[in-house]
# Entry
Amino acid sequence: MQGITLRLARPADAAAMTVMQRASWLAVYGDLLGEGLLTQLAVTDHLQIWRRRLAAPGPIPMLLCLDEVVIGLLYWQPEQEGEFLTARILALYLHPGHWRQGHGKRLWQAVAMQMRRAGCECVRLWLLDGNQIGEGFYQRRGFVFDGQERTLTSLGQACLQRQMCRLL
# Structure
């Protein structure tokens, strides 16, 4: 019997998080950015990013595991916006082999509860323009585009992102 669990990430999870995130990146962004662009970030560099994040004080990603194998993560932090506390989603990834099975919804619901308990009143995220899979997922959770856009340069390529938000 397969067991789905939610737990906070530990430093020892960095490699599994890296592998899962890269699989999701290639499935979602491969057509948008090209697989060659995505492979410019070396696996070892990507792993070091997660190791630094997990060693630093601050937000800890919530992991979704299937029989102890990491299949998803949601990484967020609170931000003060005037007098309101907002949750900022920094990363939400699910291994493509587990899409459309309710796992992402379960991860979102657990973390949304954490956000509310932390005193956050709304949640925001930046979505890469053209990410239809992410857009559909977030819209089904009540997120809407708020009209804000930004262009970042990622691995030498300009990437348009649009902000989505929702109340908690």
Observations:
- The first helix runs from residue 14 to 33.
- The chain is about 35% helix and 40% strand.
- The chain has a mean pLDDT of 91.
